[in-house]
Design a protein that fits this description.
- The chain is α+β, with helices and mostly antiparallel strands.
- It is flat and about 60 Å long.
- It is about 15% helix and about 45% strand.
- β13 and β14 form a beta hairpin.
Length: about 250
């Protein structure tokens, strides 16, 4: 990986990678802890969220911070999870987890695993999948300040590429002007009836639990005469998932 803080060893000397421009005078909306994985293993960093980008600061390091604009985000992966533990009073203490990964154009990849404050949920409610929402925290708004502008920027690029007859890769999915391709199957935009991100923690009727991109589409001659097909993909396998959802919404009607 050719990342911002990677150090190359040449002739016994450590040569640091060139750092980026100094941090702009934009207001800092908040900071998020994360880590960069490089040749020497994980390294703790702090992600400062600005109005038009982020600043990466390597913890316990003398290296200069590195500024990335939204256009410098090459790919973004997002998902949620819930940690839960049963307590003696019959409730389940749950904690929403935010899992994000940002890949920048210079090859630097930052992983975030952030937890909201824990909340107590009755066990019967938890097992039905209807868990209580997490307590208010600063995490979700800060992540939205990253996710919203990056998604909008990537959406503009994807639209232009498809309009020019190109295609856009989203991990296991490929978007074209005609629809989405997955594992050799072409799914026309007009046949997609639903495309969304959702998290299912526990449900007796749902076998594919967890954070997924869930898509339903019309299909002729489906199994058992059912005129619909279903596609479930783990969210962390689909980069820029928000762009896929937006493209489906725009093109399926």
């Amino acid at each position: 990986m050719t990342g911002w803080w990677r150090r190359k060893h040449t002739g016994g000397k450590t040569v640091p990678e060139a750092t980026g421009p100094e941090s702009p005078a934009d207001p800092v909306y908040g900071t998020l802890p994360g880590e960069v994985v490089g040749p020497g293993g994980p390294r703790a960093v702090t992600l400062s969220v600005l109005g038009d980008g982020v600043v990466l600061t390597a913890d316990e390091s003398t290296e200069d911070p590195r500024t990335y604009r939204w256009a410098d985000v090459a790919h973004m992966w997002c998902a949620n999870d819930v940690d839960g533990s049963l307590v003696p009073d019959g409730t389940v203490v749950t904690q929403w987890i935010h899992l994000w990964r940002l890949e920048f154009t210079d090859g630097t990849v930052v992983a975030l695993r952030l937890a909201d404050p824990p909340v107590a949920t009755p066990e019967s409610v938890f097992r039905s999948g209807r868990i209580s929402p997490s307590a208010p925290s600063a995490i979700a708004p800060l992540l939205a300040r990253i996710g919203d502008p990056v998604t909008e920027l990537h959406l503009v690029r994807a639209r232009a590429s498809l309009a020019a007859g190109g295609q856009v890769e989203f991990g296991p999915l490929t978007a074209t002007s005609d629809g989405l391709r997955h594992d050799g199957r072409q799914i026309p935009w007009r046949d997609i009836t639903s495309c969304r991100y959702s998290v299912i923690i526990a449900d007796e009727d749902e076998s594919e639990l967890g954070a997924m991109l869930r898509m339903e589409y019309r299909v002729e001659g489906g199994a058992y005469g059912i005129p619909f097909g279903w596609l479930r993909l783990p969210a962390l396998e689909v980069p820029d998932m928000g762009v896929v959802v937006r493209l489906a919404d725009e093109n399926r009607t």
